[in-house]
Fold:
Amino acid sequence: MRKLLRDPLAWAMAALALLVLGMAELKPFFAALFPELDRPLYEQDSFAALLWAHLAIVALSSAAATVVGTGLAVAVTRPAGRPFRRLVERVVAVGQTFPPVAVLALAVPLIGFGAAPALLALALYGLLPIVQATLAGLDALAPEVREAALGAGMSPGQLLRRIELPLALPVLLAGVRSSVVINIGTAAIASTVGAKTLGSPIIIGLSGFNTAYVIQGALLVGLLAITVDLMFERLLLRAKAWQVA
Structure:
């Protein structure tokens, strides 16, 4: 019990759950804090539904970014792909600097409103940390280890699956962690194109000059980012312990 009480992840999860399920109980607080507002509590959608929708968009876009980013990094570290490494690094770097709002604006005329343009924007935005981390993890493997594995009769595919990726796993996870946490915050702007996320109270609050809505959405987005970051920290520790074992 004492260990649980000292666990920051447990506290973060508890705070997030309490806010999501008990935000309605804070209506008098927000009414007192903002007496000029007729509607001090966001009630168009339940916060639980917004949380699940937000998590779904982040999970899908991050999964796509992880698959594509890892695949690109692996491809450009193989002999046939090495000439394209600088090109790939530059392209994903440009994708990171391109504002997600601009991607949404370009995507909406092509694929319409809703979650689809948000998924595209977030997947592109999340590529850079994953590609960089995977490259760093694969580059860290000593050439002697590769030569010994190949000399022992391993095929390039076996070398990748049994040696390179397992050894690069902690660094790769660190990149995924950065990408996911960034996307949790960035996903809030998906509500500008009709997607339901925790950004909905923020966007509606900004357009309607309702500061209470903005605070409610921002609190939940921030707590979600902290909770997921702590989860990845726990996962990284286990990955490192597994690697040592």
Observations:
- The longest helix spans residues 211-244.
- The two ends are 28 Å apart (CA to CA).
